[in-house]
Amino acid sequence: MKYCSQSSKLEAAIRTNAKPLTDWLERKLGDRPTAEDVAQNVFLTVWIRARSSKIENPGALIFKVARDLTNNEYKRRARAALQYSAHNVEEDLCENIHITLDNPEKTVVSKQELENILIQIEKLPANLRCAFKMNRFSEMNYVEIADHMGVSVSSIEKYIMKSLQTLRNTQNSNLPDPRRVK
């Protein structure tokens, strides 16, 4: 009987808070479809929690869960932006290395550039170098590297990003300054 009473209170709280919650989420997240998706996840989470424990104030719990899921969404977006940025940095880095068999002079220069990059990789701090080598040379994914190194996946993402930025900056500092070349 208690479950039915709690169930009806929860249903009433969901009906009462659905629109204000979705509006609040839209302001926080910036778009309606994402807000609606997060709202559905909020209601599902609260409903599941209600099955295993008594909820004193369903309205407050709805907004607490919403705040937590909103923070998770912010973190997800930050990780996605970091991965996108790391991908662009990697493309920039690789764009400048071209080995061609048609032109032996360019091949020698490209091999020298590659040797310089390998030297710079060895100069990276140990955690960055280890993560970078496992990802690029051993083709391990971030989860595997995180397990191997005993750190979070987020740390691995940061290590790879920092490695790529450092290598790009080093490579760019070795290029002649176009303002001084005449």
How would you describe this structure to a colleague?
The longest helix is centred in the middle third of the chain and has 38 residues, at 58-95. The chain folds into two domains: 2-78, no CATH class; 96-173, Orthogonal Bundle (Arc Repressor Mutant, subunit A), CATH 1.10.10. Residues 175-182 have low confidence and may be disordered. Helix 3 runs parallel beside helix 7 and helix 4 (104-123) packs across helix 7. It has seven helices and no strands. With 182 residues, the chain is mainly alpha-helical.
Short description:
The chain has helices at 2-29, 32-52, 58-95, 104-123, 126-136, 142-149, 153-173. The chain has 182 residues and is mainly alpha-helical.
What are its keywords?
disordered C terminus; Arc Repressor Mutant, subunit A; single chain; 0% strand; 2 domains; mainly alpha; 182 residues
Stated plainly, the CATH topology of the largest domain is called: Arc Repressor Mutant, subunit A
The CATH homologous superfamily of the largest domain corresponds to Winged helix-like DNA-binding domain superfamily/Winged helix DNA-binding domain
Note the beta-strand portion.
under 5%
CATH architecture of the largest domain: Orthogonal Bundle
Terminal CA distance: 87 Å
- Describe the largest sheet: none
How helical, in percent, are the residues?
Answer: over 70%
Supply the number of structural domains: 2
- Could you name the CATH class of the largest domain? Mainly Alpha
Number of strands: 0
Q: Taking all residues together, what is the mean pLDDT?
A: 78
Question: How does the helix and strand content classify structurally?
Answer: mainly alpha
The low-confidence parts are 175-182
